[in-house]
Amino acid sequence: MDSALVYKSNALIEASYRLSVYEQRIILGCIAQVRRDEPLTDQRLYTVSAQQIADMTGTQLGTAYQNLKAASERLFRREVTLHEAPNGQGGAKVRLTRWVQEVVYQKDLGTIALRFSQPMVPYLSQLTEQFTRYALTDIARMESAHAIRLYELLCQWRDTGQREVSIEWLRNAFQLGDKYPAIKDFKKRVIQPSIEQINEHSPLWVKWDQRKTGRRVSHLVFTFGEKSPGEAGVSDNKHKPKRKSSRSAQGAIYGIPMSVIEAAAQPGESYEDAALRLLEEAARRKI
User: Fold this and answer.
1) Using CA atoms, how far apart are residues 79 and 153, in angstroms rounded to an integer?
2) Cα torsion angle, 165, 29, 139, 269, sign
């Protein structure tokens, strides 16, 4: 799973749902197994093992096993509210559905197998234009489900380096309900820990600011970019938006040095697409 890529429609990235970090790991581990050159159906079982989770996250096998078992018992009941069609087509419809139609916990093997629900299939395949992709390893060591969600929202706008969202929209997307009604608690419990996790564990650096409507803080503004090769996570306040190493000869994309990407890029292919192609080719060689 080291070189696996996660593909999601933008509609799913912006959907409203709540999953624990281990439920996210199960779902994303299965999504990363969806082959782009094969049709996805709701009949196939995708399997994730406690050993894979332990290896991916750097946790003890026993801890991964217990958390995987508990997450599997909740996952079947989890819902997701989708506000758009998979490729932004078909008009504005709100669809309430479930992630999966079946979850199979295999105790002796320490594995979880799941079958995606039929309504979810188009949001994970048949993606022709409005979709987001990133490496599974980008979020593997994050311990916050909110950090994973925020990282996906930033990756959706990866080429722009900035994203502004209303706090009301973000709270709804994260399905926070009545939790953290005070803005100071929302920032302390949700936003700041997520920023720290992204800066520490992902290929992106990110800093954030807030915007007011009248006297009320109404929006958050995230500025982000690619880290330099081998850069460890540092405080978001030390990063400047001028750093755009994803397009720099000294930089890297998805951990692949720019020198390798430039040598492998095909005519008319962007550096990001070339990096993703190299990751996909590496993943296929391991199958």
Assistant:
1) 19
2) negative
Residue 199, token pair as written in the block: 């800066």
Nearest CA to 279 among 133, 149, 161, 147? Answer: 133
Confidence of residue 268 (pLDDT cuts 50, 70, 90): low
Domain ranges of the chain: 1-141
Q: b vs e for 201-226, b when ≥16 Cβ sit within 10 Å of the residue's Cβ?
A: bbbbbbbbeeeeeeeeeebbebbbbb
pLDDT at 91: 56
Query: Check: CATH 1.10.10.10 for 1-141?
Result: yes
Burial class (CB in 10 A: 0-12, 13-18, 19+), 78: middle
Q: Could you tell me the pTM of the whole model?
A: 0.79
pLDDT tens digits for range 121-141: 989 886 767 899 999 999 999
